[in-house]
Amino acid sequence: MQTNLKIDAARLWGTLMETARFGALPGGGIKRLAASAEDKLVRDWFATACTDLGLTISIDAVGNMFARRAGKNPELPPIMMGSHLDTQPTGGKFDGILGVLAALEVVRTLIQAGFETYAPLEIVNWTNEEGARFSPAMLASGAFAGVFTPAQALSTADRDGTTLDEALQAIDYKGIIPVGGRKIHAYFELHIEQGPILEAEAHAIGIVTGVQAMRWYDVVITGQSAHTGATPMHLRKDALVGAAALALAIQAIAKAHAPLAVGSIGTLDVHPASRNTVPGEVVLSVDLRHRDDAILDVMEAQFKVQIHEIAEKYGLTATCALFWNSPAVRFDPVLIDDVRQAAAKGGYSAREIVSGAGHDAAYIARIAPSTMIFVPCAGGISHNEAESASFDDCATGAQVLLDAVLACDARRGG
Ligand SMILES: [Zn+2]
Predict the structure, then answer these.
(1) Segment 338-372, tens digit of pLDDT
(2) SS in 3 state form for 157-214?
(3) 96 CA from centroid of ligand 1 (Å)
(4) How far is the CA of 72 from the centre of ligand 1 (A)?
(5) I need a surface site. Which of 106, 164, 241, 277 has the fewest CB within 10 A?
(6) What is the rounded CA–CA span in Å between residue 71 and residue 79?
(7) pTM of the model
(8) How far is the CA of 131 from the centre of ligand 1 (A)?
(9) What is the pLDDT of residues 200-233, one digit of tens each?
């Protein structure tokens, strides 16, 4: 079935700009950490917008928000669309937010046209996708998908020792419905690409076929603290020199598996962090990714050999622990095709793409057919106040979301 419903691009853009007030930063970005006072403001706005449309809001025990529009057959499992409204400490206006507000725009368009779907539609706002306040990322969609227990998610604490449970209660968003355990017919998530590919190739739409595998490690390199003035170079056990060598080794490993491999050190804590003391210990985080689990296995093995060799070379000891392991995700071929057809119907330039970043959809894909739609962001920049997506690209993404969801729904009814 074909429809000619058109989303309202200006209305969508208006909601993006309006909600950007909540946690607005001077540089044009947003600081809206999960379950913070700013997060409460945007959640309240979202809840009001949905109830004004006649949608039913429910909130689960980890703060995930669901806004439901019953379809012709309310007994069917819902088609779900959404993303997250939390941001990084210096985040942008689009990461996650576009996916939730485009879903809202889809529902507004349907209501305005008097179009009733067969299956119920649900807009979702997942709690703490970013992992900036409560680590790891995608904590609440993970709980929904059974990756973590609700108790594990709720007991996760921020740097000040506040648990997610306490933070949700403080903003009055610890809901009562159980976490997960229900059937979802399909899950669609629109998101900015967060990389440079679509813009560089002048595509409006990324047909996301999956999410690359990623592994995070905690590495501790131990040497010996010593006086920087009195300790000759050949007698030092400088943990930071080891960390520097490891940074170069990780770069070499990723480049050896170009162009699809990436590897980074993201955090580096130098101890005792004194100007005139040779660093005795460095604690760092490593992030390795590839779309193929088998190649990531090879990269991991090379990484571990390098840690060992570097420690030996510089007279250090080193330990490496796997902090997080997210296998490669392949999205649902039927839903991917819905997105492909929706892009073609609109005449939008599109290409298939594998997500370099993690997303809630990666967890939801474990329990329900899922897929994602990407739109370009300027320079591929995100997790940055300068993050920017164009009016037209946001509108195109929302239109493809609408058409893909309707195609999915039409199969239910047909
Ligand atoms: Zn995001």
Answers:
(1) 999 999 999 999 999 999 999 999 999 999 999 99
(2) ECCCCCEHHHHHHHCCCCCCECCCCCCCCEEEEEEECCCCHHHHCCCCEEEEEEECEE
(3) 4
(4) 32
(5) 277
(6) 10
(7) 0.90
(8) 10
(9) 999 999 999 999 999 999 999 999 999 999 999 9
